[in-house]
């Protein structure tokens, strides 16, 4: 996600330290990443993986919508490769 300074003003709040809603119909994932960045000041390496759109789905094997686990294997393999 691009973490451009232009998006910081979207997180300004008159009553809180930071707001987790831009109020604009665009850049929702970028605003979420900027919100998380606020809490990573002492962490140089972090990531925001926005997989909410595929996190739940219908399955013939479940009685209701269930977690898909999409992206988990990718993250595990990435971390394993970096650890080597």
From TrEMBL:
Listed GO molecular functions? manganese ion binding; metalloaminopeptidase activity
Recite the UniProt keywords alphabetically: Aminopeptidase, Hydrolase, Manganese, Protease
Q: Which GO terms describe its biological process?
A: proteolysis
For this entry, the protein name equals: Cytosol aminopeptidase domain-containing protein
Gene3D superfamilies tied to this protein: Zn peptidases (3.40.630.10)
Cross-referenced Pfam families: Peptidase_M17 (PF00883)
> Which organism does this record belong to?
Subsaximicrobium wynnwilliamsii
| Keyword Endoplasmic reticulum tagged | no
Q: Which branch of life, at top level?
A: Bacteria
Protein family according to the UniProt entry? Belongs to the peptidase M17 family.
Q: Name one GO cellular component term.
A: cytoplasm
| Sequence ranges assigned to domain Cytosol aminopeptidase in this UniProt record | 1-76
Q: Which InterPro entries match?
A: Leucine_aapep/pepB, Peptidase_M17_C
């Amino acid at each position: 996600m691009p973490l451009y300074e232009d998006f910081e003003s979207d997180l300004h709040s008159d009553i809180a330290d930071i707001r987790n809603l831009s109020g604009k119909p665009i850049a929702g994932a970028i605003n979420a990443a900027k919100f998380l960045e606020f809490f990573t000041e002492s962490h140089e390496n972090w990531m925001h993986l926005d997989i909410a759109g595929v996190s739940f789905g219908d399955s013939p094997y479940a009685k209701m919508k269930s977690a898909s686990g999409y992206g988990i294997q990718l993250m595990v393999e990435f971390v394993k490769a970096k650890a080597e």
